[in-house]
Amino acid sequence: MKGLSDCWRMLFLRFKSLFLKAAEALKGAIQRNGLIIKATTLAFFIMLSLAIIATIFVFSLAPEFSDRLISLVQSTLNYEDTPAPFTGTFFSYIFLNNSGHFWNPIRMLVWIPVLGPLLLGLEILLNSGLIGVIAVIVGAEQGIAYPIIGLVPHGIIEIPAFLLQFASIVLWQVTITEVIIAKVKGRKVERDKVRQRLKDTLILAGTSIILLMIAAAIETYITPYLLGI
Q: With CB atoms 3.0 to 4.6 Å apart as the test, which of 42, 60, 104, 152 could cross-link to 100 if both were Cys?
């Protein structure tokens, strides 16, 4: 028993050491790229706020368009193909759908220089806009508490995950663009700086994937329970 206890203790200490190193690496990446993260976050929440205001405006002043807007959102989300909650299938659906925004073959175009920033801007616009529109529509139909309960538990993890992923793509684009410009102009590439930025890109992107996995688990097993589904 003592040998088994010592084994578990060593595993715990090893895991703790790895966790602390990962946390330190993430902290450093966030500090070094704080401006990019702040700018991305600001852009996201500005678009989210505008989407909420615009949707409220449509519902209040142009109610004849509200049904069309609801139908458009429902057709976009395609709820009929959504698996039942509290299942591994639903977890996979949520996680793959969210992570697939940047890692499926088509969406990975956001990593391509020049074209990527345009697609990323569109991605931020669509994601923030869709969240804002859904929040207002569900709030109007089910009451304001429903979207809060339905979005906040996993949203407090999912949104930062998206923001870190957005920031990692911006950092990648800035780094690659600077390298290309330096090569074209015949200037020396700062290899250490480039290496550190690429490392930070991987750290931010990897952290985003982990957070999206946690958010998917919450959306699968906790959010439906809170909503009484």
A: 104
The CA–CA distances, whole Å, from 44 to 38, 94, 110, 116, 126 equal: 10, 21, 16, 17, 10
* DSSP code at position 83: P
Residue 13 lies in a domain: no
Residue 43, domain member (yes or no): yes
Angle (CA) 54-55-57 rounded to 5° is: 65
Structurally, how many domains does the chain consist of?
1
CA angle 201, 50, 137 (to 5 degrees): 105
Per-residue pLDDT of the chain (229 residues; tens, 9 = 90+): 555 577 778 888 888 889 999 999 999 999 999 999 999 999 889 988 888 888 777 777 766 666 666 666 666 555 567 788 899 999 999 999 888 877 777 778 888 887 888 888 887 877 777 777 777 777 777 788 888 888 889 999 999 999 999 999 999 999 999 999 999 988 888 999 999 999 999 999 999 999 999 999 999 999 999 988 6
Q: How far apart are CA 221 and CA 153, in angstroms?
A: 11
Domain that holds residue 121: 32-227
Q: What is the rounded CA–CA span in Å between residue 136 and residue 150?
A: 12
DSSP letter assigned to residue 185: T
